[in-house]
Amino acid sequence: MKRYTLLLMGLFALMGMAFAQEGTDAWFEQANTAYNSGNYDDAVATYQKILDDGLESVSVYYNMGNAYYKLGEFPMAIYCYEKALKIDPSDEDVQANLAIANASIVDKIEPVPQSFIVRWWHSLRSAMSGDAWAWFSIAVFALLLTMLFLFLRARKVGLRKLGFFMGLIFLISFALSVTFAVQLKLIADREDQAIIMTPTVTVKSSPSTKSVDLFVLHEGAKVDVMDTQGEWAQIRIANGSVGWLEVSEMRIF
Q1: In a domain, 110, yes or no
Q2: β-sheet bridge partners, residue 24
Q3: DSSP per position, 56-88
Q4: Spatial distance between the Cα atoms of 174 and 187, rounded to a whole number of angstroms
Q5: Which of 177, 236, 240, 250 is most buried, judging by how many CB atoms fall within 10 Å of its CB?
Q6: In a domain, 210, yes or no
Q7: In 3D, which of 89, 100, 45 has the Cα closest to residue 67?
Q8: Domain termination site, one of 38, 69, 102
Q9: Is residue 160 over pLDDT 80?
Q10: Over the stretch 171-221, which tens digit does the pLDDT of each residue have?
Q11: Can you list the positions of beta strands (E) in 84-162?
Q12: What pTM was computed for the model?
């Protein structure tokens, strides 16, 4: 009896997931229709329903960002594109639209130059999404096992050498792909970046309105969140400058 109860619970859970997916698909189509009709406010509201239901995807954030851009709400458009890139940093459409949105804001902050190794590492890691790297690691691991079998069981020396060297390549590829998948997962889960939402904000030297003014940022600027103290957050911009802002002046992601 207990076994049948568990089976029924599993069936009900699957049915619930199917109905939820149907509802999400309907909302997505509704939002796309509103967008194509020029009803950008309705499109944003419907995309938000999907997010409120706990279902995040590159497509939802990308389309939502496009709707915000059409409304002239560039900070929210940038926020949505950045959220999409956290899920899949390799998406070229999102990258292109983010660049267009960033060209529409005031602040043009030059980033601190990075070494070739760091740039190469980030570029290679961003070649695929975290999920894609995870699947890639599984495929490479299967090939690694095949080469290990070839190395251990082949009678010909040439085949054993092939198994050894190819196995070494697959081992390195497996280690890199797992590392990339884990890093991208951690990046996606962390909330350590933010987009400025207030038209103009003054960055302070300490978490107090009475502290020294350091520099000014404008809406749409992206910052790294280093620390939080109550209603204040310590931020760092791309050129390395550090200061404090009130959390209410930005949207953390």
Answers
A1: no
A2: none
A3: --HHHHHHHHHHHHHTT-HHHHHHHHHHHHHH-
A4: 20
A5: 250
A6: yes
A7: 45
A8: 102
A9: yes
A10: 999 999 999 999 999 999 999 999 999 999 999 999 999 999 999 999 999
A11: none
A12: 0.86
Domain count of the fold of the chain: 3
Identify whether the C-beta of residue 62 lies closer than 8 Å to the C-beta of residue 81. Answer: yes
Q: Which range of residues forms the domain containing residue 13? A: 2-102
Identify whether residues 205 and 170 lie together within a single domain: no
Looking at the chain, how many residues does it have? 253
Task: Please provide the DSSP assignment of 185-242 as one string.
Answer: HHHHH---EEEE-SSEEEEESSSSTTS-EEEEEETT-EEEEEEEETTEEEEE-TTS-E
The CATH number for 229's domain is 2.30.30.40
Q: What is the pLDDT of residue 13?
A: 45
Tokens of 109: 């902050």
pLDDT at 22 over 70: no
Q: What is the pLDDT of residue 24?
A: 82
Whether residue 10 is predicted with pLDDT greater than 60 in this model: the reply is no
Phi, psi of 112, rounded to the nearest 5 degrees: -65, 130
Contact 113, 121 (CB under 8 A): no
118 CB-contact burial (10 Å; exposed 0-12 / middle 13-18 / buried 19+): exposed
Rounded to a whole number, what is the distance in angstroms from the first to the last CA of the chain?
A: 47
Tell me which long-range contacts 199-203 makes (C-beta under 8 A, separation of at least 24): 201/245, 201/246, 201/249, 201/250, 203/235, 203/241, 203/243, 203/244, 203/245
